[in-house]
């Protein structure tokens, strides 16, 4: 049996740190059990969650604006110690609301602000910890994080009322200890590239393109997080009568664990595909799963014989899968553009926080007007499908996936470059034609190539015509097919 390397151990500890953060969020904001025997615990949870989301959004916005300055502040030992303490303290505040009715309002506000600000900072800490891992330890960490969070969220949900606070309070210190151990085994206090090599300096044109890509990813996260929270709000309203049923709750937790394991398996399977079509397959799979989750929202109300766990499972597996892929992309981008890693993390997570807040408000508005009815479920379904379509076809399309894949240290990249060189040699392309062909094969358009190579649009169009003529093709898609089916080590395939 192969002995685990230090990098693998670092990934395992980072995964525990990541799972503690996700578990704390689930217990703190998605479990009524945390609020014990409070008469109006649903209202207390709702108000705390709303205030916390607002505080987290402002915290992440401040981190994004400060950029590298905020990283120096985040590296201080004082803030590293205060963050888990604030998360622990905010976990113990909700039970006090049941004994201090006169102070319930101020306690809710303090709990919301403390939990929101500290969780926003903790998310950036976890992201910076993941940035210090190579690709394989990163995949290990994210897998452990998602599956571990599903496991850790069971005990607080089925524990006696009020004792969930003990579980929630334990997650921040354990997560901080795991983060420190991960940093120790990673042999570095600076984020590293998964390739293990120094990355080239970012050019102005590349910086603009990456800035646009980060904005699109943030918009995508905002829309998907909004649809997830909207669906969760509606499904929670449907399942309120079942909160007292421990068998139902335990079954729901098993579904969540199965969804986490299944989504990680799907993501790993797709990421192992050594083909140029991987972005298309990944994009289609994400869209299909998210659309199925949205379409299942009204089913329990239309067909009472359909268990509520069906839409819950579809919603969970789709969101887990999307989150897994997104975290991989975000961390790889942070590793490649290390000078802006804090800003990248903050902007992307800001999109998720703002989207969750928007989903909460839309869900409560819908339920407040019509309640959990067939009409409200159909309205949420149509809104979710529209947001998913905008997110995945306009903000997060195949070109965005291909752009991220260019910095992923995947064996696919070396094989792709070998194929392009073999095609150029076989068909007698000039050095300039090969350079342009590679960019077109990566999915680049005329505007990007014009700016990248400092050539006029007419010159690039002329080179493209010569390339297509030599290769015997007529479109960019045929070029992609040719490169994909070309065997760089044997003979070209027809």
Describe this structure as you would to a colleague.
- The protein has 494 residues and is mainly alpha-helical.
- It is 77% helix and 0% strand.
- The protein has 21 helices and no strands.
- It has helices at 6-29, 41-66, 68-74, 77-96, 104-130, 135-152, 154-158, 164-185, 204-238, 246-271, 278-295, 299-302, 309-336, 341-370, 374-395, 398-405, 411-427, 431-441, 446-453, 457-471, 476-485.
- Helix 1 runs antiparallel to helix 5 (104-130) and helix 11 (278-295) runs antiparallel to helix 15.
- The chain is globular.
pLDDT < 50 stretches: 188-200, 488-494
Give the strand content. under 5%
**Shape call:** globular
Instruction: Report the sheet with the most strands, covering strand number, pairing sense and barrel closure.
Output: none
The figure for the number of domains is 3
CATH fold-type name of the largest domain: Growth Hormone, Chain: A
Radius of gyration: 24 Å
- CATH level-1 class of the largest domain: Mainly Alpha
CATH architecture classification name of the largest domain? Up-down Bundle
User: What is the rounded distance between the termini?
Assistant: 43 Å
Strand-and-helix sequence, N→C?
HHHHHHHHHHHHHHHHHHHHH
Number of helices: 21
Mean pLDDT over the full residue set: 77
Q: What level of helicity do the residues show?
A: over 70%
